[in-house]
Design goal:
- With about 130 residues, this protein is α+β, with helices and mostly antiparallel strands.
- Helix content is about 25%, strand content about 30%.
- It is built from three helices and seven strands.
- It has a seven-stranded mixed β-sheet, sandwiched between helices.
- The longest helix has 20 residues.
């Protein structure tokens, strides 16, 4: 069973958020775990109607590689969970605050530039 919950350990969340620049949002950590432990996390913040992903990390994965197998599954699940979190709080746009994973985000319909990936929330959260 895989659970994605807001980070329960506030001290761990604070250490993960560290010195990440946040322009005024309230950053949170979403952690993905299974019975063997932590699989990865997404650091997010809400800025009005925009969800910013500050960091996306899968255990044992280096951003210079193309995510495959379990790493791709973990990153995709974290992205979808972050989008769901943002949509719950009224976000209609989603963007990253880092220049990594461009191929990963492009494959999901995001636009990219040298600094980040961005797009409407509807790329991830389906409205029917």
């Amino acid at each position: 069973m895989i659970e994605i919950l807001p980070m329960e350990d506030r001290e761990r969340e604070k250490s993960l958020l560290g010195d990440l620049p946040t322009p005024g949002g309230e950053p949170r950590a979403l952690c993905m775990k299974d019975k063997s432990g932590e699989l990865g996390y997404a650091l997010v913040e809400l800025l009005g109607e925009k969800l910013r992903i500050l960091k996306l990390e899968a255990a044992g994965y280096a951003p210079a590689q193309k995510p495959q197998g379990e790493a791709a599954f973990v990153l995709d699940t974290l992205l979808r969970s972050a989008a769901s979190y943002g949509e719950t709080f009224g976000a209609s746009e989603i963007e990253t605050a880092f220049p990594d994973f461009h191929g990963f985000f492009k494959a999901r319909g995001f636009k990219t530039d040298e600094a980040h990936a961005y797009g409407p929330m509807s790329l991830i959260v389906r409205y029917e």
